Automatic annotation (TrEMBL):
CDD domains: LbH_SAT. Keywords: Acyltransferase, Amino-acid biosynthesis, Transferase. Residues 1-23, 304-335 are annotated as: Disordered. It catalyses: L-serine + acetyl-CoA = O-acetyl-L-serine + CoA. Residues 7-20, 314-323 have a biased composition (Low complexity). This is serine O-acetyltransferase. It holds the Pfam family Hexapep. Belongs to the transferase hexapeptide repeat family. Its EC number is 2.3.1.30.
Amino acid sequence: MAAPTYGCGQSQGPQGQRPGAKWDLGRIVAELRAERERWRERQQRHKDVGGRELPSREVLQEIVTQLQGALFPMRLGPAQLHQETEDYYIGYTLDAALEALLGQVRLELCYAARHQPAADGAVEERAVHIVRSFAEALPQVRALLDTDVEAAYSGDPAARSVDEVLLCYPGVVAMIHHRLAHQLYRLGVPLLARIVAELAHAETGIDIHPGAAIGAGFFIDHGTGVVIGETAVIGQRVRLYQAVTLGAKRFATDEAGNLEKGQPRHPIVEDDVVIYAGATILGRITIGKGSSIGGNVWLTHSVPPGSHVTQADSQHSQHSQHSLPPPTPLKAAAA
């Protein structure tokens, strides 16, 4: 019998050829192993014992999907759901999601204990406490998300209903992820939080670090290219447009030249601020309550409440920056 052909009349190859021989896989696999071993040696990693030690993006994606359904069952839940069975669906879905989350929390805590000895402790007890606390925060998360949806509907003349906003707007998708991720961040599982945030980043093009504290009624219109850094603090009823950056101006280093992690380095945005497309706001500065920051403005100094900053007058604003008070902490919502 003739060997089967695959495109352009070429045969599959010699009969009985060892699998992978055509690609020289033996050599490639060996070289990849050598690169892994060099990496693990540089990172002072012990040989992994057993299965995968890190949380799974795929599992977390499924957990987030389940949580979205539990938070908004008649909009983001299954198509065949009826209001009469909402509570049953929510209970069943939450139980599955929280059990799966518990497994992921265990993985992060065990990983931290292996690589950061100070993090060692009663992993199972801590994991259960984290997931229980996360579950207890879900009603507050839902309440905050309702304010985000309402802000998007009232702030966009093209929005025809709150249902359209919830189903279609990338800014709302990003905020659902962020409200969940921020809870995980606060509860001490920052790797899980970052994975959830990056799922939203990949889907929407909106990059919100899970550490950012964002108040109620937050609306990102259009959204693509928005970046909000880890230590940003955003008040209530704030609106951002596409390509806005709330970033760091510089990074502090220690005596050895290593970056100092966790230092406040991102802006404080007070209540009722609007920041238009393409604006870049850098450093631990304060944007005063009720201010409006125009499109494509580059801002590295604080502005007082009620300011209206445009490209045309930003140079004048820079001259007056020394007369402004230093940034003051702003209390934002917990999620």
